[in-house]
Design goal:
There is one protein chain. With about 120 residues, the chain is an alpha/beta fold. The protein is globular and about 40 Å long.
Length: about 120
């Protein structure tokens, strides 16, 4: 991939992957040259599925969409460290409700170094 390629990260637990997630993946993949789906673990949640099961579900869904510029990667680190390691300059987020928008406003360290793309789910 060219050095000037725009790389985006779409982080989440994807427990399980939903139609809303799939919508954001489709739309996010059109905004960047490469979209990395970062499957992470949130210690404050009690996941239904293991990290491996969630990775498999996301990989299967992405394969079914037939999108070539999407890669699924597991991570267990701070989002900024993961995005930096991936070379990402864009963070893609889906919005479920207004409180999520306000919660994201506190991430000043993310906004300083990366563009955030927030999209409401259509499904």
């Amino acid at each position: 991939m060219a050095e000037s390629a725009r790389i985006g990260v779409y982080p989440g637990t994807f427990d399980p992957i939903t139609l809303g997630h799939a919508d954001i993946i489709r739309r996010g993949a059109k905004l960047v040259d490469k979209l990395i789906i970062g499957v992470t673990t949130n210690m404050s949640k009690s996941p239904l599925f293991t990290p491996d099961e969630r990775m498999t579900m996301v990989e299967r869904e992405v394969a079914a969409m037939g999108i070539d510029n999407v890669e699924v990667v597991g991570f267990n680190a701070l989002l900024m460290k993961f995005a930096q390691k991936q070379g990402a300059t864009v963070i893609v987020r889906g919005l479920r409700a207004a409180d999520r928008v306000q919660a994201g406003q506190g991430n000043r360290h993310i906004r300083r170094r990366n563009h955030q793309v927030r999209q409401p789910c259509r499904t």
